């Protein structure tokens, strides 16, 4: 009998709300109030998120972020900066003690990636898991040179034709795994490189050329416009098949939304949190 998980499709939300709801779901699951959750969401406005350990001023050009009317938020997870524009974002909230979840971060990535792999198949793409071949590649994953997430795949992230097609990050708190990640539907590389700091415009152009060979979107691969709704359907079914679970639609209760609002107000909408490093 397949286990029942919750499914939330939040649609386009503010950066602070998106991060607050992910953390609220982690809290609720840690207290045993809800089963595991798969959540999909988008970003309004398009947003630059940075990893928990990144230094905001060092990682990105905040003036350019403001000039373009982009949102900005620090994630509770690690990893590098991501520009969330035309994408489907997913999050998975599940206990560390779940019988199907390995103890290590990288192996948990592998298990959760089964849902992403199937989702890509459902849109007509054959993705595979990135696994570094030699010591040099492994060392490159441990010490990334760039602040840009889609510069290179990490362990067990999704690649299509050798180019990174989804980026993920994970945290473990209160006995719960929170993994969330970006699945680019479309990719505007000019906008992406515009928000990062480079020592010269030549370096910026060099990074754009590099990304053209290393990052890719669903639309870029399929060669046609792809509605986000099509991706929602494909990846929802992908997680259901890939993880062997049932998914029940769920909307947070007013009390649960109060928890989200408090986390948003006290943390993710706060400069103290977003610019603390």
Kindly list the characteristics that best describe this protein.
single chain, 277 residues, alpha/beta, 8-stranded mixed β-sheet, 3-stranded mixed β-sheet
Instruction: Calculate the mean pLDDT score and round it.
Output: 90
Work out the number of β strands.
11
Helicity range of the residues?
Answer: 40-55%
Tell me the strand percentage band.
15-25%
Please state the overall shape, judged from the principal axes of the Cα atoms. Answer: globular
Q: Give me the oligomer status.
A: single chain
How are strands sequenced across the largest beta sheet?
7-8-9-10-6-2-1-11
Q: Give the termini separation.
A: 47 Å
Sheet/helix structural class: alpha/beta
The largest sheet is: 8 strands, mixed
Low-confidence segments, given as residue ranges, are: 134-147, 149-153
Separate helix tally: 11
SSE inventory with pairings:
Blueprint: E1 3-13, H1 15-30, E2 37-43, E3 47-50, H2 56-59, H3 62-67, E4 71-74, E5 82-84, E6 87-95, H4 105-122, E7 128-129, H5 135-142, E8 158-160, E9 163-173, E10 176-184, H6 189-194, H7 201-214, H8 218-222, H9 228-243, E11 245-249, H10 254-268, H11 271-274
Parallel strand pairs: 1-2, 1-11, 3-4
Antiparallel strand pairs: 2-6, 3-5, 6-10, 7-8, 8-9, 9-10
């Amino acid at each position: 009998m397949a286990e029942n998980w919750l499914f939330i499709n939040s649609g386009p939300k503010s950066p602070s709300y998106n991060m607050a709801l992910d953390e609220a779901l982690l809290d609720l699951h840690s207290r045993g109030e809800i089963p595991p959750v798969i959540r999909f969401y988008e970003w309004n406005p398009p947003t630059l998120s940075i990893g928990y350990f990144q230094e905001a001023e060092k990682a990105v050009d905040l003036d350019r972020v403001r000039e373009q009317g982009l949102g900005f938020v620090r994630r509770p997870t690690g990893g590098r900066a991501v520009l969330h524009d035309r994408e489907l974002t997913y999050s998975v909230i599940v206990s560390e003690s779940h019988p199907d979840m390995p103890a290590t971060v990288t192996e948990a990535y592998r298990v959760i990636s089964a849902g992403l792999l199937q989702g890509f198949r459902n849109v007509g793409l054959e993705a595979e898991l990135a696994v570094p071949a030699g010591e040099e590649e492994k060392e490159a994953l441990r010490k990334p040179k760039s602040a840009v997430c889609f510069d290179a795949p990490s362990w067990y992230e999704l690649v299509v034709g050798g180019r990174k097609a989804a980026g993920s990050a994970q945290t473990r708190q209160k006995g719960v795994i929170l993994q969330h990640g970006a699945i680019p539907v479309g990719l505007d590389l000019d906008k992406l490189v515009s928000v990062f700091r480079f020592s010269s415009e030549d370096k910026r152009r060099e990074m754009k050329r590099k990304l053209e060979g290393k990052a890719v979107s669903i639309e870029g691969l399929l060669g046609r416009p792809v509605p986000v709704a099509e991706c929602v359907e494909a990846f929802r079914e992908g997680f259901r098949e890939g993880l062997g679970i049932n998914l029940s639609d769920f909307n947070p209760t007013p009390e649960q939304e109060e928890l989200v609002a408090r986390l948003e107000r006290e943390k993710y909408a706060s400069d103290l949190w977003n610019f603390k490093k």
